[in-house]
Every structure is written in C-alpha cells, then in structure tokens.
Amino acid sequence: MINYGPTDFEADLDLLAQKLMRCQGLAGIGNWPFNKIYGIPRGGLPVAIALSNRMGLPLTDNPNQEKVLIVDDLIDSGSTMTKYRGDKGQCFACLHVKPHSPRPEFFAREIPNDWIRYFWEGEEATVEENIVRCLEFIGEDPTREGLIETPSRVIRAWEEIFAGYKQDPEEVFKTFDEPQVGGLVYLKDIEFYSTCEHH
C-alpha cells in the first residue's frame, strides 16, 4: 500500500499545475482550453480546490460546460474519466495514473500498480466491513448467530482460493532440457480450478 501524504501532494500538485499553466500559456489569452475547474467527488475535490488556488481559476459544480477542466486524484481503469468526459471539449487532469491506465490530457506522474491511500480519505472500510455490507445488500442480517463470523470466514477462504495471485509463477512451474526425450508427456486426473476474470 502507498500512503500518500501532504508533502507528496504538494510536490505532485506543483508538477500538475506547471503542465496545466504551460498549456494555458501556449494557447494564448482568450484561447485557453479551460477557464473553470470541476473536481470529481470525492477524490478530485481536494485536487480541484488546490489547483483553483494555484491557478486562479474558479471552481464549478457543473462539469457539462465548455472549457471545464475536470479533475480527479487517480485514473485506474479509466471508467470515471469516460463517465465525466463530455462533448463540450472538456479537458481531464489527475494526480496519478497506473501503468495500465488510459492517459488523460494531463497528469502529474505514474505510480506503481498498488493500492494508494490518500491522506484526505480518512480510514477506509476494512474488507470485513465490506463483506458485512454485501450481506446486508442481499437482505441478510449479519448480526444473526449463523453469520456473525462469516466475514472472517470469507476472508480466510479468499486467502486460500486466491493464494496463487501472491505466488511467482517461475517458482511454481519448472522446465527441463532433456535432449533424449522427443514425445509427449501425458498426465490425467489433475484437479484444476480457475478464478480468471470471466468466471
């Protein structure tokens, strides 16, 4: 996990503001690509407020206008960026992208593919709390006797089922160079379980 603090924020905000102001300067006064800033709730709000102060641009609560700079903290899958990008020529900016992320017009830097906890987020819900919410969502009472320990059971099960995600394949699979062998090796009755994304 990456713990992202105020000092990191100031440094990345400087990088992002410099890129944005360089773009504004190249466009020439009156032709600026953006004249308002919209922060995507929740993570984009602190970034938008800080950029507004640095660049002297007003905040707006309406992303569906012309010349709006839409701001978020992180682009991961790109779904939020797609949702907010309109047809009015809005630009998109964020502090961070991950190696697999689609690239917006402006971003401060790429970060490793790891969970990041921004200092303005407060304490995140634990995995157990999220499992309790899932039980409530399906109409269950997570406080009833049979379900009280279910969140911890689910976590233990996931740790076992998905243990392979924490293994290095090179440590599991071995190959051997044996020049005298030229045929197929056939093995059967081997149990195999898949948790790939389409199952």
Description:
By secondary structure, the chain is of the alpha/beta class. 34% of the residues lie in helices and 15% in strands. It contains 6 helices and 6 strands, in the order E-H-E-H-E-H-E-E-E-H-H-H. The chain has helices spanning 6-27, 44-55, 79-84, 127-137, 150-161, 169-172, and strands at residues 2-4, 36-39, 68-75, 91-97, 106-110, 116-118. The strands form 2 sheets. It has a 4-stranded parallel β-sheet with strand order 2-3-4-5. A two-stranded parallel ribbon has the order 1-6. Helix 4 packs across helix 5. The mean pLDDT is 86.
The tally of strands reads 6
Largest sheet data: 4 strands, parallel
In DSSP terms (H or I, runs of 4 or more residues), the helix count works out at: 6
Unreliable stretches covering 5 or more consecutive residues:
none
Task: Tell me the Rg in angstroms.
Answer: 24 Å
What fraction strand?
15-25%
Structural class: alpha/beta
**Order of strands across the main sheet:** 2-3-4-5
Mean pLDDT: 86
Approximate shape? extended
Helix-strand sequence: EHEHEHEEEHHH
Helix proportion range:
25-40%
Q: Measure the end-to-end span.
A: 27 Å
Short overview:
With 199 residues, this protein is an alpha/beta fold.
